[in-house]
Amino acid sequence: MESIVSGRQDHNKVTDKSYWDGVWSPAQPSLSTLSSSDFYYGKNGLFAKLIHKRLGSLKGSHILELGGGGENKRLLSMKKWMEADVTALDFSDEGLKVVKELFDINQCSGHFLNADICSWIPDQQYDTVVHWGVLEHFIDPRPMLEKSFCALRNNGKLLFSMPNMEAVGAQLWKSWCPENWSKHVFHSKELIEKTLHEIGFSTIESFHYGVPFLKGAEWEMASIGQHPIDLLQKVCSASARVMPIFHKYGNKHISMERGFIAVK
């Protein structure tokens, strides 16, 4: 029976452990100390403002991130600036190696669990569960959302986001990066909200945030229009430093990411 269940879980994924080990191996040479003045991950950066708006103070709270391996500056920010007790769960050995190294470089402590999200059984409950850019790698979002529910205490919050595959610019991603695009599954707002309700979540809210979405991955196919798109994406990202309007007022057709928050 266990092998049958495992097979069903694997069938629900569009990426596997070997894929993510390849993404994070070798360990990122760019790992460095996170600056308090970093415009996105700093103490008063755009990510901190997003978290404070959606979750309030995290001081002393227990945070679990599903799919938390890799160069995870979001989880590091929650620990370093927001004083949360953080746990990263991931099934990629290389991903966990990278996030551990990142925390060590920043002299921060954390908990790191090597486990498959779908087969993992929580041995404690958390105040908040987060995941960023993970749910779209599952054909059926329900198992992962159910696992998120099980890992939360009563009145705990689930906060997660995915790439905004409805953005106008996402069509460039689909056309010029077909292999990368195939690793992502679009889940409609209606499906996500319906599934969250059925599982038992309440107070569900969706939102968009991030810079304008023009480039979702490194180009896999050549096109004459790619150089200006590259440049424009860099300009849009840089503009967030002085004019963070897109992070504050997201838009379905423009924003880089779309998110959801729900209460158990």
From TrEMBL:
It comes from the Bacteria. InterPro entries: SAM-dependent_MTases_sf. SUPFAM superfamilies: S-adenosyl-L-methionine-dependent methyltransferases. Pfam families: Methyltransf_23. This is Methyltransferase type 12.
